[in-house]
Design goal:
This protein is α+β, with helices and mostly antiparallel strands. The protein has two domains: 145 residues, no CATH class; 86 residues, no CATH class. It is built from twelve helices and ten strands. The strands form four sheets. It has a three-stranded antiparallel beta sheet, with no helix packed on it. Helix 5 packs parallel to helix 11 and helix 10 crosses helix 11.
Amino acid sequence: MNDKHNKKTLFTLDDEFTFSCNSELACYKTCCRDINIFLTPYDVLRMRRSTWLPSGEFLKRYTVALLGEEGIPLVVLRMMEDQNKTCPFVASDGCSMYRDRPWSCRMYPVFPVSSEEQEFLIEEKATCHGFRGDKKSTIREWKRDQDSDIYDKMNDFYKDITLHDLFQKGNKLDSGKAKLLYTACYDLDAFKRFLFETRFFDIYDVEEEVIEKIKTDDEELLLFGFRWVRFNLFSEDTLKLRDKEMDKLLQSRGKTSS
């Protein structure tokens, strides 16, 4: 059906809207077909852990990696090669990944207009029966019910990277830095090998409690990945070298470039 039959409305956090999705709807699961779902690093962390696959295998099997205009890696969920281009995690009774579903699936049909999340857009599609019920929620209640808080928190750390002034000024990552960002933020198993199978901790002065946490905690490993990216891409003081004189030199260069 043509988009002109759809209704688009802006909402604030405390505005109410009507929506409910369940298996009784005639359109159930049709929104899980032929759609571009961009995955954040935290999306991949949760989904990969749910499948029990190594991060590299998950990325190879279920995603497609692209490059944005700034050279920032974009990771998209790979649809199946069937007639409907169905999401690979759709089962007969619904989403097999529901507990760890990506942020965009979790938030549907609510989408922030900007990174500040002060206004939200809802597009009432004529083909979606979920808008025809009587269940009302505010945007704030919807976000809470979808357990989006941890996603928002982790995604905010990543937004601080992708929306950094470096890119706002028109700079672009080269292939080496793009690969560094991809590995540290998405391929966490490869990033962990890099940390623990090289002299990384002999070179960088990392807190012992942090080292212990990232051995077993994926969230802590991802947060450390964000620190590593910011140190390398933006010359920020998120890490320090054990060589104090070299660290001072790097920090002075970072302040000069900023």
